[in-house]
Write a structure and sequence with these properties.
21% of the residues lie in helices and 34% in strands. The chain is of the alpha/beta class. The protein folds into three domains: 45-194, Jelly Rolls (Sandwich), CATH 2.60.120; 207-218 and 530-586, Immunoglobulin-like; 219-526, TIM Barrel (Alpha-Beta Barrel). Belongs to the glycosyl hydrolase 10 (cellulase F) family.
């Protein structure tokens, strides 16, 4: 048989908006005619704000074209309606004496809805310099922050966020900034509610866009071959899901079998960290990560490098904290060159500095540019892989002021500025250690971060123990996998006989827990490592709908010996809105 080739591309009709959706709330499939979700966001400061989508949703007079109708004073601010020279209208809150003095709008929120503030956006501006501006909802159960951004003067910045409420009742949207000397300008506000079923339909709609219909035609001397056996196996997902491992996998066949049968990507829990590889100054020991790396290679499992440095002072090698700045700089330079050179070509990315929004060990010793320096050095050692800034609570906790999307982007931009042409090597790592996930906040935060056009990985996903642990895990995994800006996910569940970090997937006999069942269900649903089989029809065709990724097809000739077959790899790229197409592949015998 001759090697098959891509022959042509054929058009097919796009999906209907009416989607079949799996719902954890109402078991089974439900039909939802849902309003599509817009995953776009802006992180640039613009001369003009965008229009409010959905007509502002629940917001009355969202673009301030009707004066101040629907808007009122919050606190003791003085509000006024203004026009720009180009005709744009907006509301201004001035003469502010308290950080919450601003403009507001009264609403009614329901506890069974998920609110995106906004599916479009609120656009804000301040009268001078820069100021951190937050959108806040006063609800019957207290204040809920929905979004924040660093607003500037003379241009409009986007606020995008989300919330759900614990109890239905009246609510009030307002804006706050700690800088009481500035005016707050507001325009193009939108608040769009979604039901649980509509929210799930967005997952389906987004994931369907990553699938392509692949049609394989088998022929012999120009004639179709009927009943050829076709087997298509996914070798690598275009949006991988992996799980952390540790040294416990090395001599445990049960652990190895459970892990390698499911996952294509991993991160070593502790074995690459500096305190593991150089516990004594000058005596490096890579035996543990080397052994795990060898095992992963045997099973074609890709490895994320984690981590080169950790900015938390509690997680340094014992000998490091006492070093003087010059000695620390030399030791750090040796560390980054040693581990990156050793594993160059063996890892798919590096967490270069871990948690440098919450901690500043290296900055306190080496100066405020310590992180930026490490990324510049890393980029010079390996130009081929993404370099991640790995942080927690950017998606998990709205109330953590240290690591909001706005703070993450500010730090990222500072590092990129110092890297020059290598700034494109940066990538976004979000740890995702959840208690109770807020899905609207997760999605809107990912929207904002994805506006960088940098790779995003959810790097350490887990959920704290509790009766809803498995349900929350499924929600997080679905939200991450369906988001067009997310490139991959790692579950932080390296097995240990005395208990995992926060969440295990199996018991000590490698029988799935409820969390493991969720993972298996989703791996199957998303076609991870799946095999599709069938036979060619009367015209010699076999057709399958495949997620984007790398595949191997095996075609067996029905009239020849059972072992007569040909196999070949091919890649399915995600389709785009302008590219609703069937891939046609042809093989001749």
């Amino acid at each position: 048989m001759e090697v098959w080739k891509k022959e042509s591309v054929l058009l097919f009709l796009p999906l209907s908006i009416l989607l079949s959706v799996w719902s954890p709330v109402f078991s089974g499939l439900v039909k939802v005619n849902a309003l599509s979700y817009d995953y776009t966001a802006s992180i640039e400061c613009l001369a003009q704000p965008h229009k409010a989508q959905y007509g502002g949703g629940m917001i009355k007079n969202p673009e301030l074209n009707e004066g101040l109708i629907g808007w009122s004073t919050f606190g003791n601010a003085v509000i006024e309606h203004r026009n720009e020279s180009d005709g744009n209208k907006f509301v201004v809150a001035g003469k502010r004496n308290h950080f919450q003095d601003s403009v507001s709008q009264k609403l009614y929120l329901e506890n069974d809805k998920l609110y995106t503030f906004s599916v479009n956006e609120a656009w804000v501006q301040v009268s001078e310099e820069k100021a951190l501006v937050r959108a806040v909802f006063r609800t019957v159960t207290g204040l809920k922050r929905a979004a924040e951004t660093v607003a500037e003067s003379k241009c409009w910045s986007m606020l995008k966020g989300g919330l759900n409420v614990d109890a239905s009742g009246p609510a009030e949207l307002f804006f706050e900034t700690d800088n009481t000397s500035v005016e707050v300008w507001v325009d193009s506000v939108s608040l769009q509610p979604f039901t649980q079923e509509e929210w799930m339909s967005h997952h389906v709609e987004s994931i369907e866009k990553t699938k392509r219909r692949v049609r394989i035609r088998v022929e012999a001397e120009g004639n179709p071959v009927v009943n050829s056996k076709i087997s298509i196996h996914q070798k690598a997902s275009g949006k991988p899901i992996g799980c952390a491992v540790n040294k416990g996998i090395l001599n445990n066949v049960g652990y190895q079998d459970w892990f390698t049968s499911r996952f294509t990507h991993t991160t070593f829990e502790d074995e690459m960290k500096w305190y593991t590889t150089e516990p004594v100054r000058g005596k490096e020991d890579y035996s543990l990560p080397d052994s795990i790396m060898t095992l992963m290679k045997q099973h074609n499992i890709a490895v994320r490098g984690h981590n080169i440095f950790w900015d938390d002072p509690h997680y340094q090698p014992n000998w490091v904290p006492s070093l003087q700045p010059n000695d620390l700089s030399a030791a750090a330079n040796k560390r980054i060159n040693s581990i990156m050179t050793k594993y160059k070509g063996q890892v798919i990315g590096w967490d270069v500095v871990n948690e440098n929004l919450h901690f500043n060990f290296f900055e306190s010793k080496l100066g405020p540019d310590a992180s930026a320096t490490f990324y510049k050095v890393a980029a010079s050692i390996d130009h081929s892989i993404p370099l991640f800034m790995n942080e927690f609570n950017t998606l998990e906790q709205k109330g953590d002021a240290a690591s909001t999307p706005a703070k993450y982007l500010e730090k990222l931009k500072n590092i990129q500025t110092s890297m020059g042409a290598e700034a494109k090597r940066m990538a976004i790592g979000l740890e995702c250690h959840f208690d109770v996930p807020s899905l609207p906040y997760i999605r809107s935060s990912l929207d904002t971060l994805a506006a960088t056009n940098l790779p995003i990985w959810l790097t350490e996903i887990d959920v704290k123990s509790g009766p809803n642990q498995a349900m929350y895990l499924e929600q997080v995994l679905r939200e991450g996998h369906s988001h067009p800006g997310v490139s991959g996910m790692i579950i932080w569940s390296a097995w240990k006989p005395n208990g995992c970090y926060r969440m295990c997937l199996t018991d000590n006999n490698f029988k799935n827990l409820a969390t493991g069942d969720v993972v298996d269900k989703l791996l199957k649903e998303w076609g991870i490592k799946a095999t599709v089989e069938g036979k060619t029809d009367a015209a010699g065709f076999f057709e399958a709908s495949l997620f984007h990724g790398e595949y191997e097809v095996k075609i067996s000739d029905p009239v020849e010996a059972a072992n007569s077959s040909v196999s070949q790899r091919f890649k399915v790229e995600p389709r785009h809105d302008f590219q609703d197409q069937i891939m046609l592949l042809q093989v001749s015998t």
